[in-house]
Design brief:
The chain is an alpha+beta fold. It has ten helices and eight strands. Helix 7 packs antiparallel against helix 8. The radius of gyration is 19 Å and the shape is globular. The structure holds iron/sulfur cluster (2 copies).
Length: 223
């Protein structure tokens, strides 16, 4: 994958930062543990969720947690990219993917890309109570399980299966509200703890969640 064949050193143009923040690897663990990169600025792509694979250049289901730096607002641009200064606001502490990225020769990035990915378990397994909650959420809201249910729904057109799917979506939704209201967790860290809400990611199955007059339903994305 070579984007800029005509250059041989970084011009600090920011194009790579504008295309999205990096994924974290084990080497980056202390950046999060020490709060250099706060958890409110990161999110998790959960196992089975579709994500754009920069190396294979395709949308593929991820094989384990991928923790990434959030984009700014609705854009892909890394939250740490300073457009005015055309600079990284955490340059000295930028994660390993940013340190090895050379857009004119991506072999080093390709070499580490799928290795030693940092997971939520690496960061949170010792946090009593919270890890159990995340683990339970992961099992109940597994993308693999949801994919199987959606496949059956499309084949059998069964209300009972639609009900099972919507129950999972509601559990995901309610859990997030509960940990904010009762657990007093910062709303901004939910996408790190539990991945992005199913209501936001469900379009990967060709369906979206619609709420109307107190009812929740599944509708095709193109409707
Ligand atoms: S590595 Fe990124 S910032 Fe540097 S020249 Fe390439 S696209 Fe621009
Ligand atoms: S952390 Fe810094 S170098 Fe890495 S993508 Fe964000 S702004 Fe760019």
């Amino acid at each position: 994958m070579s984007q800029e064949k005509s250059i041989s050193e970084c011009r600090r143009c920011g194009t790579c930062c504008k295309k999205g923040g990096p994924s974290f690897h084990i080497e980056d663990k202390q950046l999060i543990e020490k709060g250099i990169i706060p958890t409110k600025f990161i999110y998790t792509i959960r196992q089975g969720e579709l994500a754009y694979d920069n190396i294979r250049r395709a949308l593929l289901p991820v094989t384990s947690d991928i923790i990434k730096i959030k984009g700014r607002g609705e854009t892909w641009c890394c939250i740490y990219y300073d457009e005015q200064e055309t600079a990284c606001r955490i340059y000295e502490n930028r994660p390993v993917e940013c340190r090895v990225l050379k857009c004119w020769d991506t072999r080093e990035l390709e070499d580490i890309f799928e290795k030693n990915r940092l997971t939520r378990k690496d960061l949170l397994a010792e946090v009593e109570g919270l890890w159990d909650l995340i683990d339970e959420h992961d099992r109940r809201c597994s993308y693999e399980k949801l994919g199987q249910l959606v496949a059956r729904l499309k084949q059998e057109k069964s209300n009972a299966i639609a009900g099972q799917i919507l129950e999972i979506v509601e559990y995901d939704n309610q859990l997030r509200k509960l940990v904010v209201e009762r657990g007093q967790l910062d709303e901004q860290i939910l996408d790190f703890l539990f991945g992005r809400p199913l209501e936001e990611t469900f379009h990967m199955f060709g369906l979206r969640i619609e709420r109307k007059e107190g009812k929740i339903m599944l509708v095709p994305v193109d409707r």
